[in-house]
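Exercise 7. Given the encoded structure of a 554-residue chain, write a plausible sequence.
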């Protein structure tokens, strides 16, 4: 039996992938912010990262505290490749956009928890290509839904052609463990339940008792029913009943049939009690502006926060983000937005009691997002979903930037560790490179991080003698193992069974594109392609030697 060929989306340069450096994050205390007092339930470990979003995602991917822990990713990436790549023709714009989205989506998938999901807003220009790309990255079986959001409530009569009043929201899950929440029951839906006969079981609504099938199609559902008020037997004339006789008799016994207050109805209805239905409403894939807001609403929200001269071109209304966060997460879950823009995702997640991480490259991370979050934390942001969520203020976040590249070339063209890296920064960077959690011990100088309860890492720029390493080996013991990352070591130490030895920078010099700080969707950030099928040449490893500055034991 022949297998069907796997269908894939192809584009120019698809095989070219960046070799990303796993940067560490450095907090800027002057821009971090928190409420002056702590209340029960307040969340303070939120994170705003200022820097290139692909490098920031790599930094998060190599952090065991974040990788596999994100419950919801929401991204609002650049829609129109023409605006991102204004100097290239449409075909190349499209290919570059797909490649850059692929690089980000692959990392975002790794960041998701097994029961997590990703929600992507996009317009007609790339929506269908993005769907196929997401099928590749997440798997077609993990496609959840294609949602249509009504972003506009009217169309100008002067528009020539077919106007667009909707955007798309593509939803994918990490695995089958994802289960969305229900929508809160609307006032209109709740009003359908009443209690005209003062039933002690509470509010109910009448459900049709007749089947859509005819009496000829379902003869087993045809039988006479007695109206208890008049004693009359009601017989099927055209349609059958919905329920078999045994079930009907149970309904009678439980007093679930509604004939009207005085038995005036010609056929009964079934009482469906509010207490018996799910606590919420099933969501669907048509989101009208009346439910989740529109672009004019979001611009008014921006004006109320930033003033009339600082409005973003395509902001998303807080109600739209509230719908997404509410369906995909519960209080305390982690939400990530790597195209933060004006910070709407973090603001809404904060008001809803979720933890959040946002990434933004532009200066508006400082000029817009910081003051916006400050108002949310202070409780002075009265717009958006503040009232709907009952938000009163509280919590906080850390503002962080990406550390500079770990390695740089010296005067002789050799890779050396950048002078800005102190021992602690270097240890944290090596933990990222080798897959350890950075957790310096106050008890053991050689314990900088761990990958398990018995596996540890030690980082130093010193050259270590055999005697030094044997003393460390004795302290580590037979039940534990230690990765030692150092400038140099005596080869005899390789015989110590519980130690693994690596030299820096030699061990990592060929792994990454050192010194590259910008992978953004801008032409100036793109590498020059020499030929269609040629990959960028790998970085040339420099000589590892004694070019380190002496450093104290970390």
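Solution.
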């Amino acid at each position: 039996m022949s297998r069907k060929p796997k269908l894939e989306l192809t584009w120019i340069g698809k095989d070219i992938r960046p070799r990303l450096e796993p940067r560490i994050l450095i907090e800027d205390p002057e821009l971090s912010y928190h409420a002056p007092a702590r209340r029960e339930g307040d969340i303070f470990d939120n994170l705003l990262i200022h820097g290139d979003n692909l490098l920031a995602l790599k930094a998060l991917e190599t952090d065991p505290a974040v990788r596999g822990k994100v419950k919801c990713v929401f991204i609002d990436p650049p829609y129109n490749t023409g605006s991102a790549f204004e100097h290239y023709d449409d075909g190349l714009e499209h290919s570059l956009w797909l490649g850059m989205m692929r690089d980000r989506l692959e990392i975002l998938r790794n960041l998701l928890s097994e029961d997590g999901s990703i929600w992507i807003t996009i317009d007609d220009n790339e929506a269908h290509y993005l769907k196929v790309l997401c099928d590749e990255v997440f798997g077609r079986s993990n496609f959840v839904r294609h949602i249509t959001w009504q972003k506009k409530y009217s169309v100008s009569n002067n528009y020539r052609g077919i106007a667009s009043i909707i955007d798309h929201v593509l939803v994918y899950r990490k695995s089958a463990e994802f289960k969305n929440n229900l929508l809160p029951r609307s006032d209109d839906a709740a009003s359908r339940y009443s209690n005209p006969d003062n039933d002690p079981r509470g509010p109910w609504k009448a459900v049709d008792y007749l089947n859509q099938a005819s009496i000829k199609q379902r003869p087993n559902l045809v039988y006479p029913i007695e109206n208890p008020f008049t004693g009359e037997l009601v017989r099927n004339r055209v349609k059958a009943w919905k329920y078999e006789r045994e079930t009907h008799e149970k309904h009678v016994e439980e007093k679930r049939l509604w004939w009207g207050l005085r038995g005036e109805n010609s056929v009964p209805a079934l009482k469906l009690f509010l207490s018996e239905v799910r606590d919420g409403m099933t969501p669907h894939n048509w989101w009208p502006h009346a439910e989740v807001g529109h672009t004019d609403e979001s611009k008014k929200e921006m004006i109320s926060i930033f003033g009339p001269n600082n409005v973003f071109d395509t902001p998303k209304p807080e109600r739209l983000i509230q719908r997404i966060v509410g369906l995909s997460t519960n209080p305390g879950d982690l939400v990530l937005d790597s195209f933060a823009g004006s910070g709407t995702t973090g603001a809404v997640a904060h008001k809803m009691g979720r933890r959040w991480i946002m990434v933004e490259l532009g200066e508006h991370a400082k000029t817009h997002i910081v003051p916006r979050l400050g108002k949310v934390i202070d409780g002075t942001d009265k717009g958006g979903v503040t009232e709907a969520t009952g938000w009163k203020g509280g919590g906080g976040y850390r503002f962080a930037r990406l550390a500079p590249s770990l390695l740089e070339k010296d005067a002789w063209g050799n890779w050396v560790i950048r002078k800005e890296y102190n021992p602690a920064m270097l240890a944290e960077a090596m933990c990222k490179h080798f897959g350890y959690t950075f957790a310096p011990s106050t008890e053991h100088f050689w314990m900088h991080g761990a990958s398990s309860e018995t596996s540890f890492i030690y980082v130093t720029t010193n050259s270590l003698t055999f005697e030094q390493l044997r003393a460390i080996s004795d302290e580590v013991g037979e039940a534990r193992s230690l990765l030692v990352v150092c400038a140099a070591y005596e080869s005899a130490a390789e015989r110590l069974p519980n130690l693994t030895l690596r030299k820096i920078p030699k061990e990592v010099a060929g792994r990454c594109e050192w010194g590259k700080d910008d992978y953004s969707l801008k032409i100036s950030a793109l590498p020059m392609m020499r030929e269609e099928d040629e990959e960028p040449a790998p970085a040339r490893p420099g000589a590892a030697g004694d070019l380190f500055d002496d450093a104290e034991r970390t």
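Remark. The first helix runs from residue 53 to 61. Students should compare their own answers with the one above.
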